[in-house]
Amino acid sequence: MGRVVVEVMPKPEILDPQGKAVVGALPRLGFTQFTGVRQGKRFELEVDGDVTPEVLVAAQQAAEMLLSNPIIEDVVRVADAAVESVA
Predict the structure, then answer these.
(1) pTM
(2) Which residues constitute the signal peptide according to the record (predicted)?
(3) Which domain covers residue 64, as residue numbers?
(4) 14 SS3 class
(5) Is the dihedral of CA 9, 10, 13, 16 positive or negative?
């Protein structure tokens, strides 16, 4: 079974109240090195079999049509979860 990761973020010109709340809380918790936060969405789509280029194209289309609101959000990443780097 394969998995595709889709990441969606608010467009830069869109106000991000959740991000503002987080960036305001970080210094109170001792994290003074961060000056901005944008909060987005992450989707994990499972597929039968391997993640092929065709699956990635379909995931991109699904992200643009259903997973994001193109008026206020950008699809910033569609990738095979198996090739993600570990943090």
Answers:
(1) 0.86
(2) none
(3) 2-14+40-83
(4) coil
(5) negative
